[in-house]
Amino acid sequence: MRLTSLVSTLVICLVGAVAWGSDAYRRDDLSAEDLARVARVTEPTTAFDAAETYEAMQAGAATSTKPVNANAFSNPSGNLSFEDQETFLLGNGLFRKDWATAPSSTLASDGLGPLFNARSCQSCHIKDGRGHAPASLDDPAVSLLVRLSVPATAEQQAMIDAGQIPAAPHPIYGLQLQDFAAAGLPAEGQVQITYDDVPVELSGGETATLRAPTLSIGNPGYGPLGDDIMLSARVAQPMIGLGLLEAIHEADILALADPEDADGDGISGRPSWTLDENGERVLGRFGWKAAQPSVAMQSAHAFSGDMGLSTPLVPSHWGECTNGQPECRALPHGAQAHLGEHEVPADLFALVTFYSQNLGVPARRDVDDPAVLRGKEIFYETGCTSCHTPKFVTRRDADHPAQQFQLIWPYTDMLLHDMGEGLADYRSEGTANGYEWRTPPLWGIGLTATVNDEAAYLHDGRARTLLEAILWHGGEAQAARDAVVAMPPQDRQSLIAFLESL
Asked: 116: which residues sit within 8 A by CB, 6+ positions away?
């Protein structure tokens, strides 16, 4: 949607009901006075001569104002109470904790695997930031994983449509490749990515070189994967602001959807639908294809798929070990009766979830810099805000006070968009097809290299710079991408300056 239609649709959503399918959605947490107030403060700006009020505090009162350094993504939300900061620090310890395979002398720390991708959450989300693709064919893919699936049978497709499974798993390897394993057990394979250079001519005589990846699996540990295997590489995403994204009212997200492109602007974002922990159909918000509805569900599936650890929400002690890997399922697990039924008991899981919900978004920098303001204007003019929606006000009744009624600037609509042939992985996941990706939030993106100088952009880490990431955009974003190619070099530099200020 363009700015005018976005505003009108948002106001409709705020004051009444928005029909979607057979259901109706409306924002029900605010008074009429607050509805009008929210509509006013979230209206896209048309003035670019100065920063907007509160724009530097891009996570509202939850914004972190700590010094900008390599730990910029690891600070708590700025509005946590002293007691909540203590809970945050306990969760931080568990997030960084290295798990061991069972049995282990480190009591309450065993249960890893038997198949796994990493020993700790922090191994993938390096300093709570982005991951990166392997630097060479011999480099382990610690902060990048590979999703797997095969063509679905009719029965499996019915389960996918019902939200019971995200895709059809490989009968031996499951839905995710684990490239590490417990002693005596073969890993499932080695992630291998090679690149071909793709030059892109830009206006002003400039040239950018993109990397087109080719993904394969070497040394498969359990037999050939088969010719019908579908692969999709995924780098770890930054952890900041997740609780605030969770607190955006569903109605505000659905108001931005235009699945049939009714307004004819070429943007047709649509929501991802999935099941929550109670089996209820809800909006998907997290993951590259918005397959998970909450921070807790995202965390539970990461514990299971990435580390092979059971939690109350995903209780299998053997993680992704399939029935086609009996030697994997025969190994001991790490659940201890005196601590509970799961390898990550409920109290520890709650601490990790709390930590993940409350990592602070750093304050913006240089919001009044003329180049940044010009870049912001270009960001709006080229239609980037059609998907990267600048502002929301979170629910007044959010589960935790730190996320309640905050004006936030995440630059995402949380919807699925067709990003074209260049970024397609040709693999459906839930209600997302092989061309669709959730609009990633942009807040904090300018500090990516500050936190981890190896980090990269896009779902598979192919883009080494923000400009490369923009130039890979296609599909619904093709017009915006082409505008960047054609604009004067100084305007491109201003656009990047704006993004680096986020």
From this structure: 178, 180, 181, 306, 307, 308, 319
Residue partners of 111: CB distance under 8 A and separation at least 6:
99, 101, 102, 308, 309, 310, 317, 333, 334, 335, 343, 344
Whether the Cβ atoms of residue 340 and residue 315 lie closer than 8 Å to each other: no
Max alpha carbon distance in the chain (Å)? 68
3-state SS class at 317:
coil
Whether residue 345 is contained in a domain is answered as yes
Domain count, the chain: 1
3-state class (DSSP) for residue 446: helix
Query: What φ, ψ does residue 499 adopt, rounded to 5°?
Result: -60, -40
DSSP string of 15-82? HS-EEETTEEE---SS-HHHHHHHHHHTSPP---SSPPTTTT-TTGGG-B-S--STTTTSSBPTT--H
In a domain, 167, yes or no: yes
CA nearest to 499, candidates 341, 390, 424, 392:
390
Sorting pLDDT into bands at 50, 70 and 90, what band is 140? confident
| Distance (Å) of CA 350 to CA 151, 242, 297, 304, 312 | 36, 15, 11, 15, 10
* Of the candidates 409, 413, 380, 442, the residue with the CA atom closest to the CA atom of residue 41: 409
DSSP code, position 178: -
Is residue 64 in a domain?
no
Residue 139: the pLDDT is 83
- Position of tokens 């568990």? 94
How is residue 1 written in tokens? 């949607």
HSE-CB at 25 with a 13 A cutoff on CA atoms is 17
Average pLDDT over residues 220-236: 97
Mean residue pLDDT across the chain:
93
Check if the beta carbon of residue 490 is closer than 8 Å to that of residue 370: no
Residue among 45, 39, 36 at smallest CA distance from 392: 39
Q: Retrieve residue 346's tokens.
A: 């409920």
Structural domain containing residue 180: 97-238+274-352
Residues 127, 455: Cα–Cα separation, whole Å: 11
Residue 348 CA to its chain's centroid (Å): 23
- Amino acid symbol at 324: G
Q: What is the C-alpha separation between 214 and 205, in angstroms, rounded?
A: 29
pTM value surpassing 0.85:
yes
Is residue 16 one of the residues assigned to a domain?
no
8 Å CB contact between 132 and 211: no
Query: Among residues 501, 446, 19, 12, which one has the least CA distance to residue 259?
Result: 19
Contact 394, 406 (CB under 8 A): yes
